[in-house]
# Entry
Amino acid sequence: MADMAILQLDKVSYEYRNKHQTVKAVNEFSYEFNQGLFYAITGKSGSGKTTLLSLMVGLDVPTEGVIKYEGKNLKDMNMDKYRREYVSLIYQDFNLFPLLTALENVMYPLKLKGQKTSEGKLLAMDKLKMVGLDESYYKRYPSMLSGGEQQRVAIARALVTGSSILLADEPTGNLDTENGNNIVSILKDLAHNDKFCVIVVTHDLEIASVADKTLSLRDGKLIL
Amino acid sequence: MINMLRKITHSISYTFTILFRKPIKSLAVILSITAFTVLICLMEFTIQKQEDLLSDMYEQFKINLVIMDKSASYSEDLSMNKKYASLFMDKENVLFENLSNLKIRSKGEEEITVTDEYGDYITSLNVIGLTYLPDTSEFDVTTEMGIDYDNSMLMSGRNVCIVPNRISSIGSYVYIKSEKVEELVEYLVIGTYEQEDIIFFCPYLNYSELLASSSNNIYSIESDISNTKAINDIEIFLLKYFIEPSIAGVTPVGTNELGLQYAFSFVIPKGNLEEAIDPIKADIKKLQILEPFVFVFSIAIGFIISMLSIKNRKAEFAVMRSIGASGKYVFYISFIEQAVLCIIGASIGALISWLSYSQLSDQQLNKIMIFVACYLLGTIIEAISIASLKVMRIMKASE
# Structure
């Protein structure tokens, strides 16, 4: 029997109104995402990639269709808890808290969960090590880190919650080629070795070429 | 429960971490709030100061309406008809609204007998009728009033009295007999004094109606002016009954309607009084017009600072939401942060004001509270909007 998809999208649509018209940003998108795979979602700017991402991460609710996490409809789940425990998001701009150190940034989601500081600290140090940052980085503020290092901290912050889905919005968009490749390689390893379901939204064709599956979006529709 | 406590501790520690790690921004907000708090207090204080100055002026320029029989000495052997007292106590007359601290002193030759309720003799006392509380400087007595009574009772005609404390205590009754009143009359003791004196103080009206054997019993009338603008009207009114004294001690020639020489005098020339008071009044008026504008301006700026402080950190709060912080958590974080800054700033402002002026009036405290409340209202409005924001849109906009 095949494994159940960790994230299922069934005829998901999302409409919003701007001043002049109603825009269908995502149009009847159906797909099943599995653990252990590295997905790339590509498409031109305005194709609905980011909207799709915000639906998958639970920051928005589809106007039509159903999104299921491990078979459970997201509508029936507590969205804050879903984001705290089951899904993590990585941004193009890293979006670390500028006034917290690298270690504090990684510990932050654990504090939101109410985890003990001592336990959280060990876990955070472990995740920083996993993305290749040793203890010399722990007390550095984001402004003291390179772009690549900041993105590694962001990935460590995403990993620390123990979620099994990692969503990334243009994670290499602000990095040079070498750092970009390193981040992609970390994400691939997380999918293949640690069985994460990694979904990257990008218009970088190089990432798309190394992904296990590539999905293209045009006008909010999945093009097969 | 433990989880919840950890979350609360975390949100508070996060707030303080952020405040300490951006000291210049925090300090700027605190100083702005301090400055506005001091400004609010300063306006209030300046008005208060001017009003105090005005009161001082009134005090300095007090019109001592010493109305007296020029043929007698100031404090003794005077005989003035009680009709003159009624001029001052009649609401219809120009004096009533425009004079304050009216002091009518009245004394006759009568001696009254104080008895217990069965009519047994206790002591004999001289009577003085007053419209005000007797004080040390004038009568060499230190009066203690009962908490339920005040000196306004001395403006009434009620049977109340102030007696030596060896005779009775506050709140109890004494009974008196006099030449005029043969029946025992009950008097409520509203105050006592400690000194070994033999005076029975009672309201002037009570004295003149009930106890005084002669109708010519006032020995002086004194009053302060409360409305300088009315001086001319007061003067015209007084001239109907009294004679204005001439300068350099020359006894005025003339008689009043009783055929007696009564005179009144304004201690300070009225021209000087107006000259001194009018600029202060004008200043107070200007300040009173300006003050609400300054207050509203301070509130508006506080409101804007609080909203901007949160708005500028939209992206940070959006990240929090995206990693699982609830809307409530984001609301608390932003609210606690601004509340801490506001309370510190306002407290410093209040402390500076208190140190500078050695006091903080209720009005100043109320205005500080209103300022703080408006600042926090701005915070709440913005925090609510942040807590319900569309996270991805903000993240995209900030890229």
